[in-house]
Write a structure and sequence with these properties.
It is built from four helices and 74 strands. The chain has 845 residues and is mainly β. Helix 2 links the parallel strand 1 and strand 2.
């Protein structure tokens, strides 16, 4: 350590003089001392320990001429203020000593200047070995400031850190600010090019408001225990083994409104590396970081919460271009954005061995993986809940353009609205352009995928060499696969929708109707079935809409639109509409395994299977343990149904258009007579609007006059209005031209909003408002008397009939018979007439 001479100590004592000594003796507080550039004062410092002192430091002072490290005794409350001595607004470089606080009640406040002196924390005792000791000593650590007591309080404002380590032992680490206990508060600290950490916290609290760290050859802040809190702090450039901005191995790291830019780590975390720490990032920007794992942020163990902020342009050579999370008990990302991050696995975010992952209202744009998971890469995540997630333009060269997951359970959206719907737009990958979910057998329980109201649009299979089969979603797991409310408003391009292996498949309200294809008047060519299910544990497919696909090239006629291969459990296809294709072998095909045996029951109920060209493809070909086909509508097909069940087939209430060449054919190819409840020779089905072979613009809904209306099983489940169910999946065309709430098919005046079957009758307006002729417009009480003759049209009780008297007046007016003019009054009216005449005479003037 640096040393001072006895002559210097004596000079300092003489300069302060008797007045200063008297002030200390009287214990006046605070004591104010001015430190000038030519002052030596180490001896004086020893005499004011335990006092409240404000040191006014003249600019340009070099404390190292007299003291290297000041150790504050118990109760010392010292303040150092740098003074603009010349008054020119410019502060000359001022070198301050190091400070060590290891006693109860010691506080230090420093404003301005540069910390240039060094204090040492030595041996296993934790004692300060700094001060005026002369030669360098062995130490555990050297630091400009040491906070080593739980009561220590240190505040530094606009204070720089010196880089000169001359004279320090090369065997001990060097750090700018060292916190063992107590609290360190720093404001407006600017640090550049340090060869050692600016801050190391092994206990206590470090808080920084504003400031910057530029360059540097190691982590700027190192955390082992305690709490680091940063607000409005920036980190630019720099290199480190890990965690260029912050390297945390334990403790809590809280960062708000800060930015990390351009850090390069050899292993983990171009900006932040955290191991076993609680990390909370709020509105933090992480840009252009580089590392092997976690180009921006790397977190292992502990927990990570990211709220707001931007993760942009980070690169990892292995996984987690933007963020990598490993073995954490919990990870949350909310209202954040990831843009243009890159890695082989997980361009935007990679998560491994995490119990709970929640990503909410987050946008990932143009992230890319050279292998898997352009947006997200998940591995052994027990519960991944993705709410309001938008993945746009994510790319993977192998699998999972948007999301790739192994041995993980994923939930996207929720039916009760507790988790907002997500969307994947413009994602690219040869396998699972939007999603790939794989079960390797090393997974936690219930591995699978559940998505509610997921939107897929403008996806692309990429151009990987040797790729022949591309799909939007690829799933291989014996667990659950549930897609509800999935839509593809921008189309799937040349991609099929789904390939699933062994899963328990639930597909409800799936709409794969390509609007973009509609506009170009041509269908997308696919190289595999639009929905391909292999060895599914079970299949529940309801209310699906599929249009806009043709089989490509050499596969024409060999592919089926929906293929279910070797089902291990029962299959239900209900209320689904498949139409417009012209080159598939069949719209639906269910086949057993290679043995030709199957115990599965297949139910084909109330579906619309409509081809593009007659005599070209079949409707449904089903080979299973047992087959039930009922209430289906089939049109523009070669063969409507090919059914074969080991335990028999049940086929009722199906409707075959005249455009179906052969309604039903058995396994041997022979035409089979349809039973009495089915129709194989009918008039055209009256599909509206006019069906086009190469357009999905108009659904083939039913006109009211179609024979499919109320054509289903009268003993089956009725339609919502209580009527016999229609045949097929699509409803009657229900328009409401006048907007009165009554559909045109039931509205007796579809162009008049005051008339409709859902409206109430308005009495006396001359209109049949409720479309019910039995409701008399001018008889409100329903007693059979019109309003003009009913004395009380709100009372259904009839008045006794009377004869109308001459002059047009009636005594009661109920069902009156018209009297002949000049006819005598009835005898029973004479007394009443006399009374009326007498009253009139009395009232005459």
């Amino acid at each position: 350590m640096r040393s001072t001479t006895s002559a210097t100590r004596g000079l300092a004592a003489a300069l302060f003089g008797g007045l200063a000594m008297a002030a200390w003796a009287a214990d006046e507080a605070p004591i104010v001392l001015q430190i000038t550039t030519d002052m030596a004062w180490s001896d004086i410092v020893e005499q004011i320990q335990g006092e409240v002192v404000t040191f006014q430091v003249s600019e340009g002072w070099d404390a190292l001429q007299s003291v290297d490290c000041l150790t504050l005794a118990a109760g010392s409350r010292w303040t150092f203020e740098l003074i603009d001595t010349t008054g020119d607004g410019m502060i000359s470089p001022t070198r301050l000593p190091g400070f060590s606080l290891g006693a109860a009640g010691a506080t230090l406040t420093v404003t301005g200047g540069e910390l240039s002196g060094w204090c040492a924390l030595g041996g296993d005792t934790g004692e300060d070995t700094g001060g005026d000791t002369g030669e360098a000593e062995e130490a555990d650590v050297y630091a400009h400031v040491i906070s080593a007591h739980p009561d220590a309080e240190i505040t530094l404002t606009g204070v720089g850190l010196g880089v000169d380590t001359t004279g320090l032992s090369v065997t001990a680490p060097v750090v700018g600010l060292y916190g063992l206990a107590g609290s360190l508060f720093v404001a407006d600290q600017e640090v550049a090019g340090l060869p050692f950490p600016a801050v190391q916290l092994v206990g206590g609290t470090f808080i920084q408001l504003r400031g910057s760290y530029i360059g540097g050859a190691t982590s700027a802040i190192v955390l082992s225990d305690g709490t680091v809190s940063l607000n409005e702090v920036s980190f630019t450039g720099g290199r480190a083994e890990r965690g260029v901005g912050v390297d945390a191995e334990g403790g809590a790291l809280l960062i708000t409104d800060s930015r990390f830019d351009g850090g390069v780590a050899k292993t983990y975390g171009g900006a932040i590396a955290a191991q076993g720490a609680v990390v909370v990032l709020d509105d933090v920007a992480v840009a252009s970081g580089q590392a092997a794992e976690g180009g921006g942020v790397w977190a292992q163990g502990g927990s990570l919460t990211i709220t707001g902020g931007e993760i942009t342009g980070n690169v990892a050579s292995e996984r987690g271009g933007g963020v990598f999370i490993d073995q954490a008990t919990q990870a949350k990302v909310k209202e954040s954005s990831f843009t243009g991050n890159r890695a082989p696995l997980g361009g935007g975010l990679s998560v491994r061995s995490v119990e709970t992952l929640e990503i909410t209202d987050t946008l990932l744009t143009d992230d890319a993986a050279s292998l898997k998971g352009g947006g997200l890469h998940l591995q052994q995540v027990s519960a991944a809940r993705l709410c309001g997630l938008t993945l746009s333009g994510a790319t993977a060269l192998v699998s999972g353009g948007g999301i790739y997951a192994t041995d993980s359970t994923i939930t996207l959206g929720a039916e009760d609205g507790s988790c907002a719907a997500s969307q994947i737009l413009g994602a690219v990958a040869p396998q699972g352009a939007a999603l790939s979910v794989i079960d390797t057998g090393d997974a936690p329980d219930d591995v699978g995928l559940s998505a509610v109201d997921l939107t897929l649009s403008q996806l692309n299979g990429g151009e990987a060499e040797g790729t022949t089969k591309d799909q939007a979603i690829y799933v291989s797991t014996p667990g659950a696969l549930a897609l509800r409310g999935l839509t593809t408003p921008g189309g799937l391009g040349s991609l099929a929708l789904l390939t699933a292996i062994e899963a328990e498949v639930t597909l409800h309200d799936v709409s794969v109707v390509n609007e973009a294809i509609t506009q170009s008047s041509s269908f997308a060519a696919v190289q595999q079935s639009v929905i391909s299910l292999t060895r599914p544990a079970s299949v529940d497919l309801q209310r699906a809409r599929i249009c806009g696909f043709v089989a490509q090239g050499e596969t024409t006629g060999a592919l089926d639109m929906v293929t279910i291969d070797a089902p291990a459990g029962d299959v239900l296809l209900e209320q689904s509409a498949l139409w417009g294709a012209a080159s598939f072998g069949a719209l639906v095909r269910v086949i057993p395994d290679d043995s030709g045996l199957s115990d599965a029951e297949v139910i084909l109920r109330h579906n619309s299977l409509i081809g593009g060209i007659k005599d070209f493809q079949d409707g449904a070909t089903i080979f299973a343990g047992s087959v039930v086909a009922t209430g289906n509508l089939l049109s523009r097909l070669d063969v409507g149904l090919v059914l074969s069940g080991q335990d028999g087939e049940t086929e009722t209430y199906n409707l075959f258009s005249e455009t179906v060449s052969t309604p039903r054919r058995d396994e041997g190819g022979q035409t089979v007579r349809i039973d009495d409840t089915s129709t194989d020779d009918v008039a055209p089905l009256d599909l509206v609007p006019a069906f086009k072979e190469t357009s999905c613009a108009a659904l083939p809904e039913l006109l009211e006059s179609s024979p499919a209306v109320n054509g289903g099983d009268p003993t089956g489940t009725p339609d919502p209005d209580g009527s016999i169910p229609d045949q097929g999946a699509l409803p009657i065309t229900l328009d409401d031209t006048d907007g009165d709430g009554s559909f045109d098919v039931d509205d007796c005046a579809p162009d008049d909003p005051t008339i409709g079957d859902t409206l109430d009758e308005v009495y006396g307006d001359g209109l049949d408002n409720d479309c019910d002729p039995s409701t008399i417009d001018d008889d409100e009480d329903g007693d059979g008397l019109s309003r003009d003759v009913d004395c009380d049209d709100a009372d259904p009780t009839l008045c006794p009939p009377v004869t109308q008297f001459f002059g047009g007046r009636a005594a009661c007016g109920c069902a009156a018979a018209t009297a002949t003019p000049g006819a005598p009054w009835p005898l029973w009216l004479a007394p009443l007439a006399g009374i009326i005449l007498r009253r009139r005479r009395r009232q005459a003037p």
